[in-house]
Write a structure and sequence with these properties.
By secondary structure, the chain is mostly beta strands. The protein has one helix at about 60-65; strands spanning about 1-10, 15-20, 25-30, 35-45, 50, 70-75, 80, 85, 90-95, 100-105, 115-120, 125-130, 145-150, 155-165, 170, 175, 180, 195, 200, 215, 230, 250-255, 265-270, 275-285, 285-290, 315-320, 335, 340-350. It has a single domain, classed as Beta-galactosidase, Chain A, domain 5 (Distorted Sandwich), CATH 2.70.98.10.
């Protein structure tokens, strides 16, 4: 089922909100501002439905936020140090939107675009399209973009992000939903149990910039190869981090996934014990940014009058490694004319059976 309604206007143009639902009652709400997921309703073990992604009730709040809730981000998701990179012998200066650095495509990245939307003939998918012009936020090349959300009857939400270019450029799109499997606005996610299929991680400095190192997770708070509570080792992060941890920011790092390639494989498994909700993520990407929302606070009001808090949600942003343009040994993120950037992420939802 697909339904559509108005969701305000942005720069004089209407923003559309589109709902897709499957036969089991799972439903997702999407808006054309940022090709963004704003609601995701799934059942708990007792059958109770709740919205498990963070977001806002109004378009004005999405326009005003710097949280990237639910957005398609690019051209380059994550951070580029000093907002510049070399490509084919030419230095490109990008928009500086986090201190001296570049984050998630800049102040007018893909998350700020008004995308067009079409429907799959079978009624199972919404296809968002947009264009990123040559020079936008400092990136070379005109790029055609597409993000497709498909909600299937086997309770899978698939997100496919694609791009082509007319000139050599960078491309590293990310999907930026924050999840709380107990329900958005229900408190923190520190008791969620998570497993990450990742034997290595990329450490960061005090500006959250990748250092270029690739380190083993063994014996560190970054070891999630066996499921454990998200909050289990937060107190130990100060031993391995820089100043970023002094204010208790929690995790905001890239994990290097097993089996890097172009095929789907398991990235993460998450379980919320009280609700019984489970979520498994598969990806085609080599890395995933696991962020625990340590810089959220009660000052951020979520949907339906529910105030958020520190650690109110977590992200799983499948990606190339952060800072890739500066490190030759990191996965390549160059998009060439005639080629197609494409990444898939598939969320499988299930629940514990309750009497």
């Amino acid at each position: 089922m697909i339904a559509e309604e108005d969701f305000g206007s942005f720069q004089g143009k209407k923003v559309r909100r589109i709902t897709i639902a499957n036969k089991n009652g799972l439903s997702a709400k999407l808006i054309t501002f940022g090709a963004r997921l704003t609601e995701l309703w799934t059942p708990a073990g007792d059958g109770t439905m709740d919205d498990i992604v963070l977001g806002f009730d109004t378009l004005a709040e999405y326009v005003a936020t710097n949280t990237y809730f639910g957005a398609t981000c690019g051209r380059y998701g994550n951070r580029i140090a000093r907002a510049r990179f070399m490509l084919d012998g030419t230095e490109h200066q990008l928009d500086r939107n986090e201190g001296n650095n570049h984050l998630h495509g800049g102040k007018a990245g893909f998350d700020r675009k008004l995308w067009s939307a079409d429907y799959d003939p079978k009624g199972q998918a919404v296809i968002f399209s947009a264009t990123s012009e040559d020079g936008e936020m400092g990136f070379p090349g005109r790029c055609d973009l597409r993000t497709t959300y498909t909600l299937s009857d086997d309770d899978r939400l698939e997100i496919v992000m694609e791009a082509t270019t007319d000139r050599l450029t960078l491309m590293n799109m990310v999907h930026h939903s924050y999840f709380n499997l107990a329900g958005q606005g229900s408190g923190n996610i520190l008791d969620h149990e998570i497993r990450l299929a990742a034997p290595f991680y990329t450490p960061v400095d005090a500006e959250l910039l990748a250092t270029g190192e690739i380190l083993s997770v063994s014996g560190t708070p970054f070891d999630f190869r066996k499921a454990k509570k998200i909050g289990a080792d937060l107190g130990a992060l100060s031993r391995v981090g820089a100043g970023v941890f002094e204010e208790g920011g929690g995790y905001d790092h890239n994990w290097c996934l097993d089996g890097a390639g172009t095929e789907l494989r398991t990235c993460a498994e998450v379980h919320e014990p009280k609700s019984g909700r489970r979520m498994t993520l598969q990806t085609t990407e080599p890395g995933v940014q696991f962020y625990t929302g340590g810089y959220l606070s009660e000052r951020v009001m979520g949907k339906r009058g529910r105030a958020l808090c520190k650690y109110a949600g977590f992200t799983l942003e499948t990606q190339k490694f952060p800072g890739t343009p500066g490190f030759a040994h990191f996965p390549d993120c160059v998009l060439r004319p005639g080629g197609t950037y494409r990444q898939r992420m598939v969320f499988q939802f299930s629940k514990d059976k309750r009497a």
